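Quick one, tokens below:
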């Protein structure tokens, strides 16, 4: 029977010091009561907060790891059932950091496949005429390393002398789905790179060329969650098998050392 659970929580999580009126044993007792209350009422977010504090106070108690991991999985399933795959993946990754099991790993992989397919389908529905005919491709990852996965994609349509390339972006919850840029490339050119470069943060690169040599590239990334053209060069002449290393070292690398 908890009359004022919020008051009890505040007492329980108060930082321990010589001036505290509450001892460690009483503090743990209050937190245990709060844990039971939140479990009974289904308030998983607050239950996670309480378990985090208990893990910090009693690091030797590994039962908290299992409990917390299971709660994260339950919370993730709620988001997945509400068709929010991106949030579900984010929360499952929190569970994996605490206790990685084969089931959690397999579930994350399954949700990534579903989420990638969902974002691709949303892009193609939003820009259906652009994705009809020609070539297209996409790269799915956590570009800004905030725990949420998104997509950069491209379409390339043939014209007489110059092909038109469009680059698109769709964020994790599909609230931002935009055509980032478009540009022309020689119609005889071949796509030599369309995907991720670097590791932290990650960039999307579209590179093209002819006869085994890359003659141009466009590099895209995120700035405060917004997609933008970072840099481009249409006057290079680099062997196709060296273009990814060239961009990571000379383009991305120079930006990261500025």
């Amino acid at each position: 029977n908890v009359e004022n659970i919020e008051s009890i929580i505040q007492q329980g999580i108060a930082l321990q010091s010589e001036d505290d009126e509450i001892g460690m044993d009483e503090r743990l007792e209050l937190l245990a009561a709060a844990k039971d209350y939140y479990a009974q009422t289904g308030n998983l977010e607050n239950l996670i907060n309480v378990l985090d504090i208990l893990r910090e106070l009693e690091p030797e108690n590994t039962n908290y790891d299992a409990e917390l991991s299971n709660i994260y999985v339950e919370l993730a399933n709620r988001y997945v059932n509400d068709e929010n795959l991106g949030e579900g993946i984010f929360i499952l990754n929190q569970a994996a950091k605490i206790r990685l099991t084969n089931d959690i790993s397999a579930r994350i992989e399954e949700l990534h496949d579903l989420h990638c397919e969902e974002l691709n389908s949303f892009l193609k529905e939003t820009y259906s005429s652009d994705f009809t005919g020609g070539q297209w491709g996409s790269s799915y990852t956590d570009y800004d390393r905030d725990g949420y996965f998104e997509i950069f994609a491209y379409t390339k349509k043939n014209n007489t002398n110059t092909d038109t390339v469009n680059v698109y972006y769709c964020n994790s919850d599909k609230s931002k789905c935009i055509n980032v840029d478009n540009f022309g490339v020689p119609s005889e050119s071949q796509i030599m790179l369309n995907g991720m470069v670097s590791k932290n943060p990650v960039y999307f690169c579209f590179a093209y060329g002819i006869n085994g040599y890359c003659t141009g590239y466009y590099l895209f990334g995120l700035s405060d969650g917004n997609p933008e053209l970072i840099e481009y060069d249409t006057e290079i002449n680099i062997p196709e098998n060296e273009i990814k290393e060239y961009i990571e070292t000379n383009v991305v690398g120079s930006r990261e050392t500025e």
